[in-house]
């Protein structure tokens, strides 16, 4: 029996790019993906907000280790690794910022999956098979970049403190912003090989061109790493530039492999 009043089943599911969706269907699908993404970020935000103290201790551990080792002497009236608040809203804004950054990182797999589900109906089967590897590699490389930024944080702080020759007294909002920018810079920089592989698969670049440009690529990567590294110290620059150089040649190897594979298939056909 068909009921006259039934719940809306949502936009039609598309299996091929030849299927058609109305503008209303597209908007409904986009709204559904946005709502799920917002809920994932809100859940991650709540988790970080609840465990804020543990997360803050984790972020300030590199600074605390410098104090405990005697490399840094804390300011007057401060304990080792303490951060100060210069306004009533300073600590509040720092807590919100950490929760937002952490919520986005925790929700990153869900965000990428929702983007994939939204664009996948417009892709052909030959294009769709590359999408999931791109999503997983993008998320993995971004998290790897954030991890490297955290590992680099202690030597970077040591260099900046010794070079400045001043007793550090860090404001909590400034410190959180610095750590967040470092993680973002390394995470975005580690998307470099994904972009190169995508351009090769799209036919915009060829692996032979990239191999011929390797000298210019070294200069460009070093300049780019210096530009996006917020601290500007040579330790962070080297920690970001060296992996990007390795990723450049890895992207060339992947492009060469896929090109040879296409050539073999074409020859067999």
Q: What is the strand content?
A: under 5%
- Kindly provide the radius of gyration, computed on alpha-carbon positions and rounded to a whole number of angstroms: 24 Å
Distance between the termini: 53 Å
Number of strands: 0
Q: Could you tell me the mean pLDDT?
A: 82
What coarse outline follows from CA principal-axis ratios? flat
Helix/strand order, N-terminal first: HHHHHHHHH
Model regions low in confidence, pLDDT < 50 over at least 5 residues: 1-12
> Largest sheet, if any?
none
What is the SS-derived class? mainly alpha
Which helices and strands occur, and which strands form pairs?
Elements: H1 23-50, H2 52-68, H3 90-119, H4 125-164, H5 172-189, H6 192-201, H7 207-212, H8 214-228, H9 234-268
What does this structure look like?
The protein is an all-alpha fold. It folds into 2 domains: 23-189, no CATH class; 191-264. It has helices at residues 23-50, 52-68, 90-119, 125-164, 172-189, 192-201, 207-212, 214-228, 234-268. Helix 4 (125-164) packs antiparallel against helix 9. 22% of the residues are buried. Mean pLDDT is 82; it is low at 1-12.
How would you concisely characterize the structure shown here?
74% of the residues lie in helices and 0% in strands. The protein has 269 residues and is an all-alpha fold.
């Amino acid at each position: 029996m068909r009921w006259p009043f039934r719940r809306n089943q949502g936009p039609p599911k598309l299996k091929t790019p030849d299927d058609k969706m109305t503008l209303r269907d597209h908007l409904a699908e986009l709204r559904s993906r946005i709502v799920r993404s917002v809920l994932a970020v809100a859940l991650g935000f709540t988790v970080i907000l609840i465990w804020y103290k543990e997360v803050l201790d984790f972020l300030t551990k590199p600074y605390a280790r410098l104090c405990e080792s005697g490399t840094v002497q804390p300011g007057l009236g401060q304990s080792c690794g303490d951060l100060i608040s210069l306004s009533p809203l300073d600590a509040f804004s720092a807590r919100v910022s950490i929760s937002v950054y952490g919520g986005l990182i925790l929700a990153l797999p869900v965000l990428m999956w929702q983007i994939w589900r939204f664009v996948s109906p417009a892709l052909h089967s030959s294009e769709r098979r590359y999408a999931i590897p791109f999503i997983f590699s993008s998320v993995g490389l971004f998290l790897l970049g954030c991890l490297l930024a955290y590992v680099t944080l202690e030597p970077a702080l040591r260099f900046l403190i010794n070079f400045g020759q001043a007793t550090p007294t860090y404001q909590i909002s400034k410190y959180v912003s610095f750590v967040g920018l470092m993680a973002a810079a390394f995470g975005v920089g580690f998307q470099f090989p994904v972009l190169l592989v995508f351009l090769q698969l799209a036919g915009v670049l060829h692996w032979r061109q990239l191999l011929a440009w390797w000298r210019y690529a070294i200069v460009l990567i070093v300049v780019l790493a210096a530009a996006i590294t917020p601290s500007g110290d040579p330790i962070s620059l080297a920690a970001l530039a060296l992996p990007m150089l390795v990723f450049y040649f890895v992207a060339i190897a992947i492009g060469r492999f896929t090109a040879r594979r296409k050539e073999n298939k074409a020859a067999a056909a």
